[in-house]
Amino acid sequence: MSTLTIQLPESLKKRIEALAAAEGYSVSQFLASAAGEKLAVMLTMDYLRREAAAGRREDFDKYLAAVPDQPPPQTDRIDE
Question: Does the model's pTM come out above 0.85?
């Protein structure tokens, strides 16, 4: 483990402390979890961008053409 010193606006610090306490976490656990979640999102976005850049429209059209042209099952419908 390592230590990191950060500066936060007092209002943000108080909200983090309150939420962490309400959830039963220490502030350190809360911030480590939040940083891990943000990192996972950013890495996932990078992965998806790389995959999208490597994709080919012809392949997409081929697979899309293989999908049957029929209405969705009743359980998948959203009727307003």
Answer: no
> With left for phi above 0 and alpha for psi between -120 and 50, is residue 24 left, alpha or beta?
left
Report how far residue 40's alpha carbon sits from residue 46's, in angstroms, rounded to the nearest whole number. 10
Closest CA to 13 of 29, 38, 31, 36: 31
| pLDDT tens-digit series, residues 39-63 | 999 999 999 999 999 999 999 999 9
The rounded distance, in Å, linking the Cα atoms of 68 and 56 is 21
Q: Where are the alpha helices (DSSP H) in 1-80?
A: 10-23, 27-54, 57-65
CA–CA dist 74, 41 (Å, integer)? 33
Tokens 């950013």 -> residue: 42
Residues in the chain: 80
Pair 32, 41: CB distance under 8 Å: no
